[in-house]
Design a protein that fits this description.
Layout: H1 3-9, H2 15-23, E1 27-29, E2 32-33, E3 46-48, E4 51-52, E5 62-67, H3 83-87, E6 94-96, E7 104-110, H4 113-120, E8 128-134, H5 140-148, E9 151-152, E10 155-156, E11 161-166, E12 169-174, H6 181-188, E13 193-201, E14 204-205, E15 214-216, H7 219-229
Parallel strand pairs: 7-13
Antiparallel strand pairs: 1-2, 1-3, 3-4, 5-7, 5-15, 6-7, 8-12, 8-13, 9-10, 11-12, 13-14
Helix pairs in contact: 1-2
Amino acid sequence: MLINKYISVTGFCSRRETNRFIAAGRITINGQVCTKGANVEPGDVVLIDRKEIPHHDREPVYIALNKPIGIVCTAAEQVEGNIIQYMNYPSRIFAIGRLDKASEGLILLTNDGGIVNHMMRSEHNHDKEYVVTVDKRVTDEFIQSMSEGVEIMDVVTKPCEVYRLSENVFRIILTQGLNLQIRRMCKALGYRVLKLERIRIMNITLDQLERGQWRHLEKEELEILLSQLN
C-alpha cells in the first residue's frame, strides 16, 4: 500500500498532508526516512516524528472475516477480487496481514492503523493457527521436521507446534508470517498443499463463522486481543 494511502486510512491526516510530512523528512519506514511514493508492506514499522501513528477520532472498527478462496488481501482497486471490494464496508478498512488467494479462513480487518504494527511484528510471537490438507500421508518424520524448522528462502523457519489430525491433515501453530510459509515448508519436504485454512489469530477464532461471512469482534475478545499487544 502506498504510504499516502496507508496513513490516510488511519485517519491521522490526508494524503496531501502526508506529502508534506514526507518532504519534511518526518516519516520513517523501518527506521529509514520515507520518500515520496514509498510502499508499506505488512510488518513494516511506520513512525511520524519517531512516534507511532496516533489513533484517529473515528469509531474504531475490528472485523473478523472467514475469507473464501479467490479473494485477494489487498486494497489495490485494480486487483480483481480484492478484499475491500468484497467486503463493501461503508467506511475505510484494511486487512491486517495477508492470507494468500488460494487459502481460506480467518483474517482481521480494521480502520485502526495503530494496531497493525503491533500485530505484524514477528518478534511479538503472536500465534496463528492453521489446518492443512496435503497430497500424501503425514508421517512422524514430516511432523518432526515441520515443528523443528524448515529451510525456505535462505532462512530456517522458527520452531512451531504441529499435530496430525488424520492421514493427510495436520494442524500447525506459527509465530511468524513468511510469504507463503506453510506452502513453502511443505514443498521443501516433498508435500503439496491441497487445502489451507486459518482458524485462529491469537485469541480470535472462526468459531461458527460461515465461509464468506464476517462479524465485528465482541467487546471481551477485543479487550483480550488489545491487552496481548501491550
